[in-house]
């Protein structure tokens, strides 16, 4: 379950999924649960991993939790009770944690966090469960409405507080109203408060740690957006470590992660933020497409092609993101094509797009068994992957031109044919002075444009 879906589910769990009344209120809950499990297991065994079962007496469904061990979150309701979530082994049909909890979340160490409302209003009781269903108390009476993992063995505790929200969507005129807005506390592994001043919002995914750092917002005095569709605070952003201390300036308008790169924004200026908080200025138009790409980017959108989870078109693209672009084109041109295998061939990357791209032969790893997903792709790597993708999608090889790039001697033997093949069919061209610059970077917008050119070449 995604972090945003987890928080929404926690907020809505007070009975919105209940579907029955009458006889079901007095029915034998255990017998109904046993019947539901039987039906869910029958569906699951046919490959339906999001099985559900609905009768006049109950509603039951499963959600992926730890599929590699056949463990799924079980939702089961016969009334308006809040306590409907548990854990089931779909292979054996054994309910290892009964559906008596408000939320279930998988943690990093192959354990689970379970929560229920505490005895006092707006408090939470929490437990840890192992894969066998053995429970230990994590905390009792935490002052909050929701809790989830923040990574690094730490947690985000959320509570609703009345805050001023300027709704610019729901009302005819922008209107400021006091509304329940999530506010966050950062807890350590013992669920003690490390920081209690983190801003949340409406429909805002809680922050999480990346390599020991977390981007947080503090100091908001007004939330802009909509009470219905989501609102963000006007506070400033910075990076904190697992002690809760800021390691960067806390004056950014926003911070984005692009794998190993952390990008901060102040006004219309962008900065590369180092793990120690140091900054390097980046072009102010980093998040805009260059003028030369306009026509091809527009036509790409018409063909179902876009940058996949990539916010900065002029930033050099990573290997994992380029694989995602290649798979996107493969899916557009081959909608009934091959699915990604379950196993990854690389020791450092289990990305679904990379698994499929490797299975198709579009990407290859390194001799040490790694893929290096966060490394930026070089121009010769891009040419090689584009050429493989072209052939996989049915493209035919053209006669090689005898004209050589001025820096041909710098090409790898593994990339030379691809570089010239992509030039000859008009997919990827050289740069000034008849140079290709094989070790140079390749931007997100360049990747999208070349995918659009491949689309047109293959769709003729």
TrEMBL record:
The UniProt entry's coiled-coil ranges are none
SLH domain location: 337-400, 402-460
- The answer, when asked if Oxidoreductase is one of the entry's keywords, is no
Q: Which keywords, in A-to-Z order, does the entry hold? A: Repeat, Signal
What InterPro entries would the database entry show? SLH_dom, WG_beta_rep
Q: Where is the signal peptide?
A: 1-23
The yes or no answer to whether the keyword Thylakoid is present is: no
Query: Which Pfam families does this chain map to?
Result: SLH, WG_beta_rep
The name under which this protein is listed is: S-layer homology domain-containing protein
Per the UniProt record, the source organism is Agathobaculum hominis
């Amino acid at each position: 379950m995604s972090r945003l879906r987890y928080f929404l589910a926690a907020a809505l769990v007070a009975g919105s999924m209940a579907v029955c009344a009458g006889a079901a209120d007095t029915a034998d809950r255990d017998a109904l649960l046993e019947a539901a499990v039987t039906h869910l297991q029958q569906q699951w065994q046919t490959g339906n991993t999001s099985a559900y079962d609905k009768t006049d007496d109950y509603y039951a469904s499963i959600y992926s939790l730890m599929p590699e061990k056949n463990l799924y979150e079980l939702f089961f309701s016969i009334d308006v009770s809040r306590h409907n979530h548990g854990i089931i082994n779909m292979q054996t049909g054994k309910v290892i944690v009964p559906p008596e909890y408000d939320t279930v979340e998988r943690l990093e160490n192959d354990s689970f966090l379970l929560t229920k409302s505490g005895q006092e209003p707006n408090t939470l009781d929490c437990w840890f469960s192992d894969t066998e269903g053995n429970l230990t108390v994590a905390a009792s009476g935490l002052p909050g409405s929701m809790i989830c993992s923040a990574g690094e063995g730490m947690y985000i505790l959320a509570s609703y507080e009345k805050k001023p929200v300027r709704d610019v969507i729901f009302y005819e005129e922008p209107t400021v109203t006091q509304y329940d807005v999530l506010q966050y506390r950062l807890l350590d592994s013992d669920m003690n408060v490390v920081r209690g001043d983190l801003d949340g919002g409406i429909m805002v995914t809680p922050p999480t740690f990346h390599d020991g750092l977390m981007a947080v917002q503090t100091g908001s005095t007004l939330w802009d957006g909509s009470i219905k569709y989501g609102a963000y605070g006007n506070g400033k952003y910075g990076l904190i470590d697992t002690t809760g201390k800021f390691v960067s300036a806390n004056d950014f308008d926003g911070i984005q992660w692009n794998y190993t790169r952390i990008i901060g924004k102040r006004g219309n200026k962008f900065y590369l933020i180092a793990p120690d908080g140091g900054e390097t200025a980046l072009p102010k138009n980093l998040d805009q497409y260059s003028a030369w790409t306009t026509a091809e980017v527009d036509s790409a959108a018409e063909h179902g092609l876009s940058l996949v989870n990539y916010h900065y078109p002029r930033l050099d693209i990573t290997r994992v993101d380029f694989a995602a672009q290649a798979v996107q084109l493969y899916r557009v041109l081959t909608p009934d094509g091959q699915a990604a295998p379950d196993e990854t061939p690389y020791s450092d990357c289990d990305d679904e797009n990379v698994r499929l791209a490797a299975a198709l032969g579009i990407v290859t790893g390194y001799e040490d068994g790694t893929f290096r997903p966060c490394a930026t792709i070089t121009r010769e790597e891009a040419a090689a992957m584009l050429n493989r993708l072209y052939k996989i999608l049915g493209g035919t090889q053209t006669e090689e031109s005898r004209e050589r790039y001025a820096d041909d001697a710098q090409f790898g033997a593994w990339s030379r044919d691809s570089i010239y093949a992509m030039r000859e069919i008009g997919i990827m061209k050289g740069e000034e002075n008849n140079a290709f610059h094989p070790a140079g970077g390749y931007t997100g917008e360049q990747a999208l444009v070349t995918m659009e050119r491949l689309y047109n070449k293959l769709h003729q």
